[in-house]
Every structure is written in C-alpha cells, then in structure tokens.
Amino acid sequence: MRRNHSRPLRRTALIVGEGFAEVELLRHLKSLLTANRQGCELTIRNARGRGAGHVVQYAIAQMRNAEFDRIGVLLDTDHDWTQATQASARRANVQVFSSEPCLEAWLLRLLGEPVRNGITSAQAKQQFQRVAGAEAHEQGAIAKLLSPEALNAAIDRDETLNRLVQLIRDL
C-alpha cells in the first residue's frame, strides 16, 4: 500500500523595498515577527530606488519569476507616485505601503517625533540622522530605535504599519 507523503504548503510573501533603508526596516520587522515560525517564507528584495513606478514594476517582474501568495511594496511618495503607478499596483494585486514623503519622516512619526507638514525628504533624512545618530540605511540604526515595545505602540497609531505587520504576521 502506498503512503501519501505530502508536505504542508509553505505560505510565501515578497516585499520589495524602494531602497536600502526600506530593506533595513523590513529585515528588522522580519526578525521580530517571523522568528522560529515554520511553514512561512518572507522574501525581501531591494528595488534600488528610481521612484515608486520603478518599485512597483520591479515587484511585478519578481512575481513573474516566482509564485508568491502575497506581494507588497514599501516605497516613498516623493518621486513618481502617480495615478498610473497606483493603478498598475492595483491591477497586479500588489499591496502598497507608502511613506510620505520618505521613510525617514514616517519612522520619525512612528517614534512620536514631531515632523512638520511640508518637510522635504532631505530635511527628514537630516532630522532622522540627528535623532538616530545614524542614517536609516545603516545596519542596526532602525533596530536601535524601533524596539519591540516601540513597534507595538506604533502599530496601534499608524494604519500603514499596522497593515504591513499584518501581512507579515498572516504568513
């Protein structure tokens, strides 16, 4: 008699970060939220900048190379965040997690730091460097600021972070 040796299916997700700082944040979230979990795989890729349109197109191209249960992008809205880019993401079922105007401004808000309206990306990056003592893309800079306790508090306050964390937890 033959035995059925089926393996359980692995749930998979791909999240594409716009640049090195986004990838650093995603790796930190992965380390906190998926440690010691079996049956799930979170793949993080770096689109290496060039604006929101490029990030969405890069994620769609990655979908064609491998099959993922869920696809998301973490991107800034300061460059190339157009109606066409948003429509392209919707058509491809890509979940968009946007930071306005850039990741550093979003992180400062998550940490409860005051960020004035109309701040430019360059100003937000400078403010982040003053608060963190390092640039966001430097290894460990985000992990130092976003402890598990700070993350839990920020999840309750920020809808984008809440959705991003939910995508990772639901794997």
Biggest sheet descriptor: 4 strands, parallel
Beta strand %? 15-25%
- The low-confidence parts are none
CA(first)-CA(last) distance:
35 Å
Radius of gyration (CA) equals: 17 Å
The succession of helices and strands, N to C, reads EHEHEHEHHHHH
Describe, in plain words, how this protein is organized in 3D:
The protein is α/β, with parallel strands linked by helices and 171 residues long. It has helices spanning 20-33, 52-65, 83-91, 103-110, 121-132, 141-145, 148-157, 159-169, and strands at 11-17, 40-46, 70-76, 95-99. Helices cover 49% and strands 15% of the residues. α4 (103-110) packs across α5 and α7 packs across α8.
Would you spell out the secondary-structure blueprint of this structure?
Blueprint: E1 11-17, H1 20-33, E2 40-46, H2 52-65, E3 70-76, H3 83-91, E4 95-99, H4 103-110, H5 121-132, H6 141-145, H7 148-157, H8 159-169
Parallel strand pairs: 1-2, 1-3, 3-4
